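TASK: fixed-backbone design
INPUT:
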């Protein structure tokens, strides 16, 4: 494949309208239009509102990503520069009616420009986000080379997964959540405590001032032999605890509950991470997804990894942890390297439940 392969990537899988331009594994521009404000009053993502916002925003967001990547050749008129080699889009998993907006746009642009299309698994994007380099070519893997197998821990608002990368484009799902995702659990705790949305960052901020040992909460699935997770029991335990504390008239328990909840949730993740290391002997570990912003999680992963002489790799910027299209461009680059383009004769459909 030619060097400097330029991809325009689009992601509309959930509540962020995102577009990016990548050149090989480098991020040239990365634009995200967040819908958090639209969904806040509902305490969660409302699919129909997300769809409407994606429809309104996808064009301008793409335009902005192109403008930032090609400030000299793009004037105010909207067009796809000839230098673009391919168009990538998230096919799933995600909200069906949100995914279809990005897919329709990508198809339209591909048809108009005759550029090949690459369909990307959103979770593959999170998994490969640590491989992204900045425009100058600096990133976690710019000095150290990838050594397979690589173990990926993906923790986002919709997913919690352990994935083994045998190579680029060769994945094995080792375990995943059986109910709520880690980020979703944080968000639900925040809702119970009436802290606001999205809850993860608020809970982790309050947890810093709390005592993690004040309210021992269960560590889910710690005895199970598989590599799956479950967070709904932890959520229910927290709900009962909050009820009890309210009945007793106890005040200002938020800090301690957040800290105790975070402790149990991170412990549950670490038990399975360690189990996966023992079973699959990875040479490196990568982290992805919005919950990677959680400092207790990062410390936990570093501690477990150190025990096995491993060091975890994280995306070079916070903007690559949460939903974005740059990670889709990076994943698409590795797919393009293997000739994995969408056959134009086959319809490209949204796959809301796409898995590894
Ligand atoms: O990856 P992401 O942007 O979206 C999905 O693909 O789902 O992750 C968003 C999730 C939300 O649930 C949010 O509450 C959580 O990541 N999150 C955090 C933190 N920052 C974001 N959870 C815990 N601690 C944080 N610091
Ligand atoms: Zn995501």
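OUTPUT:
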């Amino acid at each position: 494949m030619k060097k400097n392969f330029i991809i325009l990537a689009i992601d509309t899988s959930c509540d962020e309208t995102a577009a990016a331009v990548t050149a090989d594994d480098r991020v040239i521009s990365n634009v995200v239009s967040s819908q958090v404000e639209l969904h806040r009053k509902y305490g969660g993502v409302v699919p129909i509102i997300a769809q409407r916002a994606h429809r309104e925003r996808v064009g301008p967001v793409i335009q902005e990503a192109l403008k930032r990547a090609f400030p000299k050749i793009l004037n105010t008129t909207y067009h796809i520069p000839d230098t673009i080699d391919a168009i990538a889009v998230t096919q799933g998993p995600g909200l069906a009616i949100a995914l279809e907006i990005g897919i329709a746009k990508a198809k339209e642009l591909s048809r108009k420009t005759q550029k090949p299309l690459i369909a990307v698994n959103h979770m593959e994007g999170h998994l490969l986000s640590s491989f992204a380099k900045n425009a100058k070519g600096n990133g976690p893997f710019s000095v150290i080379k990838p050594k397979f197998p690589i173990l990926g821990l993906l923790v986002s608002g919709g997913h919690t997964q352990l994935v083994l990368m045998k190579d680029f484009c060769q994945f094995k799902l080792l375990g995943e959540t059986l109910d709520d995702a880690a980020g979703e659990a944080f968000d639900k705790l925040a809702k119970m405590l009436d802290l606001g949305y999205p809850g993860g960052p608020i809970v982790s901020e309050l947890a810093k001032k709390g005592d993690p040992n004040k309210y021992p909460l269960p560590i889910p699935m710690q005895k199970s032999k598989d590599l799956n997770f479950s967070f709904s029991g932890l959520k229910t335990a927290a709900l009962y605890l909050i009820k009890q504390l309210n009945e007793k008239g106890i005040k200002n328990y938020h800090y301690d509950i957040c800290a105790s909840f975070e402790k149990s949730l991170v412990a549950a993740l670490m038990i399975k991470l360690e189990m996966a290391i023992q079973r699959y002997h990875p040479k490196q570990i990568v982290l992805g997804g919005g919950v990677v912003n959680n400092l207790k999680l990062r410390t936990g992963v570093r501690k477990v990894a150190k025990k096995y002489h491993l060091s975890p790799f994280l995306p070079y910027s916070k903007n690559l942890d949460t939903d974005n299209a740059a990670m889709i461009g990076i994943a698409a680059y590795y797919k393009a390297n293997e000739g994995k383009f969408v056959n134009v004769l086959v319809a490209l459909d949204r796959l809301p439940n796409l898995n590894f």
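COMMENT: Residues 122, 126, 156, 323 surround zinc ion (ligand 2) (CB under 6 Å).
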